[in-house]
Protein: Alcohol dehydrogenase
Amino acid sequence: MIFDKSFRYEIPTAIEFGSGSIKTLPQHVRGFGGTKVLIVCDPGVLHAGVVAKLEEPLKAAGIPYEVFSEIEADPAIQSVDKGLHLGKENNCDVVVGVGGGSSLDTAKAIGLMLNNPGHIRDYVGLNLVPNPSVPVIAVPTTAGTGSEITIWSVLSDKQAKVKLSVGSVYNCPNLAIADPELTVSLPPHITAATGMDALTHAMESYVNKATQPISEGLSVQSMKMISENLRLAVVQGENLEARSNMLLASLIAAMAFNSTRLGLAHALAIPLGAHFKIPHGTVNAILLPEVMKFNVIGNPKKFAEIAAIFGVNTYNLTEREAAEKSVEAIRQLNHDVGITQTLSDFGVKEEHLDQIVEEAMLSGNVPVNPRKPTLEDLKNICRAVMKEEKKEFVTL
Structure:
């Protein structure tokens, strides 16, 4: 294949990966010239004892810290304000985010605001942040969001019921410490949802119009690892190899989409999550097969390749036939990992669709999608996943 378009690829985040790598935290804090750490997490991670695994090496190294744990799902801009106040009040000069995407997105935003004027609302959009963040270290405990290396923080305005995205190279953490041992206690349903989120990242980056050779290679590697490890990570949570592979697959998927953006699943997931409080990974999983079905004619070659990655025997199939088989492969994966909900289960009704699709159409993920949608196309995708489809699946 001859590739003839220009592209840019950048990842400013250093990555420390491996079991037990969290023990290196103090040396990295010192390396950044840090004198006091602000740990940002959610209550669940705190109560599960995960934060203690960060506190122990910090205490042993004599590095003081404060803990800010007022993070909720779909983190609010008010959480950024509270964390910022605590950080400033205690002269914290390094931020360590630990948890899923909500905690990491908030930690990144707090780090930005510790070294930038105004309010986080001032920087909603792409590349509007004037100054680098204070050093931020991201420690993921889920294998899905990829927030530990991306330019984005997705925050909620609870009153307006909208999500706000801040995107800047200055919003990338300085370091990601990815320790698979911190993901072992993740419940099966969260393992499934975050894993499907990672898959959606890899796949939407792979088939969209902004794809480029570096991101393509990363997407393929991520999808292969997910196809081989997600089911096992869900049913054998203690399997450290599967956990490690899923954490790495999630990180690699983020390295792909960080430079290419995504597609219609994410465009729709943002307003659906904001209005109906559907967990981000779950709503992506619900939407993904139907979005694939819509997109097949926009990039049949790559969807045929996806089918093969997920174990479909494509021998003697035409490219189009193989591409369409990819949709069923992902429906099967959803079933196997226990994601069987529909949008209706979360209260989505026909009368809500006008607002949902109008908001989705504003997303920067729509222009790069492999097939240009109309508002009615987006409604039809939602309608198709508002009701349960009766399909035959193989039970593992």
The longest strand covers residues 94-99. The chain has two domains: 14-183, 188-384. The chain has a mean pLDDT of 93.
